[in-house]
Amino acid sequence: MTFKRSSCPITNVLDLLGDKWTLLVIRDVVLGKRRYQEFLASPEAMASNILAERLNRLLAAGLIRRHAYQRNPVRYEYRLTKRGEGLEPILEAIIVWGKKQYPGTKKFPRVRASETRTPHARNLKPQKA
Q: Which domain holds residue 72?
């Protein structure tokens, strides 16, 4: 396998996920967001051009997949792939660490992307601790 900068696994993961937006997109998918406008409604207020670029990057990396839910104009829903679901324990570890380091931050339900296929999942929101 050819590596971009180094054969260090941390370097390679950070090359893909190490900016300030990509893990937030993954977080939103895990919490049940599926559509472009739902991602844009996140409290971090990601710009639409950045969101489009991050979704394309995650698609190319095989971490998410998309499915057209409307044809004219074409609109997509996004879900984690099996490979992307492998990031869930990492997100949970970040949440646990963040809660310890930053008391008073929001509390997230323990949800797996595979459990967010119900209509109820669309209404999941972080809860204040």
A: 9-128
Tell me how far apart the alpha carbons of residues 33 and 25 are, in angstroms, rounded to a whole number.
9
Is 64 contained in some domain?
yes
> Does a structural domain hold residue 58?
yes
Q: Which of 50, 47, 62, 60 is nearest to 22 (CA)?
A: 50
CB contact at 8 A, 53 and 98? no
In a domain, residue 3? The reply is no
In angstroms, rounded to a whole number, what is the distance separating the alpha carbons of residues 27 and 17? 12
Give the three-class secondary structure for 67: strand
Over its length of 129 residues, how does the chain's per-residue pLDDT go in tens digits? 677 788 899 999 998 999 999 999 999 999 999 999 999 999 999 999 999 999 999 999 999 999 999 999 999 999 999 999 999 999 989 988 998 999 888 777 665 665 554 343 444 445 444
3-state secondary structure of 21: coil
